[in-house]
Specification:
elongated; single chain; about 100 residues; 4-stranded mixed sheet
């Protein structure tokens, strides 16, 4: 029984670490003069940092503020590249004993 509970905890922990959806996403409002791809908003992953602002500016967004990301289809939202997250799992053989 203890082994099953431990396995469930490990599975839950790995699923939380491997899910990029757990990150909070936000959007920058793109002001006039932004590129056509970033006409309205630029979406970023994580928190509001200089690095995320710089990524959106490189996409052509002239940042005018922050907002929650729209879900309507009539807005142009470009994406700042999400940082690559890797998860290493060690699969070493257990010693007998």
């Amino acid at each position: 029984m203890r082994t099953k509970i431990g396995a469930l905890w490990v599975a839950a922990l790995l699923s939380m670490l491997a899910t990029p959806c757990a990150w909070a996403d936000g959007c920058y409002i793109c002001a006039s003069g932004s590129s056509d791809a970033c006409r309205n908003y630029c979406r970023y992953a994580g928190s509001d940092t200089y690095a995320n602002r710089h990524l959106c500016e490189r996409r052509g967004c002239r940042i005018g503020g922050t907002a929650s990301c729209p879900t309507a289809v009539n807005y142009r939202v470009c994406m700042a590249p999400a940082p690559v997250r890797t998860l290493a799992v060690c699969d070493a053989a257990r010693p007998n004993g």
